[in-house]
Predict the structure.
Amino acid sequence: MKNIYLLFTCLLLTTALFSFKLSKAPPRLPNLPLTTTIGTQTNAQELTGKVVLVLFQPDCDHCQREAEAIREHLDAFADYTLYFITYAPMQDIQQFARDYKLSGQDNIFFALSEVQPILDNFGSIPTPSLYIYSDQQKLVKAFEGEAPIKEILEHL
């Protein structure tokens, strides 16, 4: 009987661990304070129109590949405002924007946010993570981890 109880407990714990998700995609634009590279302060909740949030780290090779893929398909993002968000130092953010030729685009912004609000809103996520929001601020699709650009474009 003790072995059956132990087996049941192990099965229950295993099921709970595999169903537990450390990340959580906000169903609406999150309450996420942002400071852009030009010093403007805003909140993701206040963004209007169709929005893509890209959470990234400048030294992440997956993030670099995703930035290149986005740059190669900028026309597909014409109806969206993209916010690349990180908690990296501002000089690293600015360098990333220049290196991947995304600075100076009218619909692309780079912003700094603190770690805790990112964790509070998204949970523990891999980088890059990309979230597409409709013009009603509702989540259309979440990509956690590097995603093929073709899949991203299908949801725009």
Summary: Confidence is low (pLDDT under 50) at residues 3-21. Strands lie at 33-36, 41-43, 50-55, 80-86, 108-112, 129-133, 139-144. Residues 23-154 form a domain with the Glutaredoxin fold (CATH 3.40.30.10).
